[in-house]
Specification:
Low-confidence stretches: none
Bound molecules: pyridoxal-5'-phosphate
Number of helices: 11
Distance between the termini: 51 Å
CATH architecture of the largest domain: 3-Layer(aba) Sandwich
Shape: globular
Order of helices and strands: EHEHEHEHEHEHEHEHEHHEH
Structural class: alpha/beta
CATH topology of the largest domain: Rossmann fold
Radius of gyration: 19 Å
Mean pLDDT: 96
Strand content: 5-15%
CATH class of the largest domain: Alpha Beta
Strand order of the largest sheet: 1-2-10-7-8-9
Number of strands: 10
């Protein structure tokens, strides 16, 4: 399959690990549940954004960029990993973040600073206004004579999504008989790449509530990758969003505790927590059945755990 050029930022293939105690706790068979450990990919805490950045940064370098500008929520994992990629490649990184400058730089924000990224605060803005603020910054830098590459929200573009087609290809080798792959959906590139490689019937997305139109975004990215309209059905659950992206829900609380206590694996409260809550719901609904090999994509996000004021609810110590 034709892929754009990429550079090497992390350690591949990521491991695929069985989680037998957790499988049994969910009512599956011991050998059914596997974690694709894209949280263990080496650079600055790891996570799914690195696969995308390998393609995006290759393009930016080929075009002569000296500065990367991107956008995100305050605790954006994508922003942190863009900061790390810039540090590794010798590119200056400007992160335009939603909200006001906080008093405590916790979680991903602490790592952004440590990695040397510049953080600009866009105030209380919606997605469109956030991106416009970032584009203003791009224009300002270009007027100063700095070559800039702008990376869109969540790092998702049809080029970046090839990183998850690479992940799908790894899974074809590691788990040739897989029945299901569960992934969180934010800006959509991760799911789009997996569907591009594995097809639409085995890949299940769980919306985290980061964007208002997740299905359209995933579909548009798959179509752009394949250079033809993708009209097959997509499996995307919208039932785990709750009150919205930033809010902890009871199913997510259950998922984080279950995965920690039966698997020794830490999920984050925004993305992987919601995705695993979606997997639990799918098992309870009988959509995932004992005997079917089920892969959970651990897409990272641990630093976000330490930036979330609601984590006390998860410790059992409240
Ligand atoms: C930890 C984690 N998992 C999953 C996602 C969702 O990936 P995508 O934006 O490609 O849908 C994100 C996006 O920010 C993330 O940070």
């Amino acid at each position: 399959m034709d892929r754009p050029e990429k550079i090497h930022l992390a350690t591949w293939p990521s491991p695929l690990e069985a989680s037998p105690r957790l499988a049994i706790a969910l009512g599956l068979r011991a050998g059914d549940l596997w974690f694709k450990r894209d949280d263990l990919t080496g650079l600055a805490g790891g996570g799914n954004k690195l696969r995308k950045l390998e393609y995006t940064c290759a393009k930016a370098l080929a075009e002569g960029a000296k500065t990367l500008v991107t956008v995100g929520a305050a605790q954006s994992n994508h922003a942190r990993l863009t900061a790390a990629a810039g540090a590794k490649l010798g590119l200056h990184v400007v992160l335009v973040l939603a909200g006001n400058r906080p008093t405590d730089f916790t979680g991903n924000l602490a790592l952004n600073g440590l990695l040397g990224a510049e953080m600009l605060w866009a105030g209380d803005v919606d997605d469109l206004a956030l991106e416009e603020r970032a584009r203003q910054e791009v224009r300002r830098l270009e007027e100063e004579g700095t070559p800039v590459a702008f990376i869109p929200f969540g790092g998702s573009s049809s080029i970046a999504a090839h990183g998850y087609a690479d992940c799908g290809d790894e899974l074809k080798v590691q788990a040739p008989n897989l029945a299901h792959v569960f992934t969180a959906v934010g800006s959509g590139g991760t799911m789009a790449g997996l569907v591009h490689s594995l097809g639409g019937t085995r890949v299940h997305g769980v919306d985290a509530g980061a964007v208002s139109d997740p299905e359209q975004r995933v579909r548009a990215l798959i179509s752009a990758m394949a250079k033809e309209d993708y009209s097959e059905p997509l499996s995307i659950r919208g039932d785990q969003v709750g009150l919205g992206y930033a809010y902890l829900t009871e199913p997510v609380e259950e998922a984080l505790q279950l995965v920690a206590r039966y698997g020794g694996i830490i999920l984050d409260p925004i993305y992987t927590g919601r995705a695993f809550a979606g997997l639990i719901a799918a098992v309870r609904e009988g959509l995932v059945r004992p005997g079917e090999q089920t892969i959970f994509l651990h897409s990272g996000g641990l630093p976000g755990f330490f930036g979330n004021p609601e984590i006390l609810h998860l410790t059992g110590q409240r």
